[in-house]
Amino acid sequence: MTAVLDALADPRRREIIDVMARSGQATATTLAAEVDVSRQAIAKHLGVLADAGLVASARQGREVLYVLRPAPLEATARWMKDAAAVWDRRLDALKRAAEES
Q1: 36-70 burial, b if ≥16 CB within 10 A, otherwise e?
Q2: Which residue of 2, 11, 27, 87 pairs with 63 in a disulfide if CB–CB is 3.0 to 4.6 A?
């Protein structure tokens, strides 16, 4: 999960994830056109995303096709939801204690 959060800390990588979520798959060339950065920069970002398990790649002719892997995102979202629920309970208890005193 740490690798996923580290990968998502960069706004360009979040933008890449957003583009891929809409299309399901893309090449570095098509991503570079949509995200408006160089193909080399996209390739580096895709490497980080791949290391975090967020994208998988497969060669398709001369290009490499990248596919979004949502499972790590879903696991991270579940953890964040659970952590938020714990804090909501703690804050509710604190609020009740403050109101009672």
Answers
A1: ebeeeebeebbebbeebebbebeeeeeeeebebbe
A2: 27
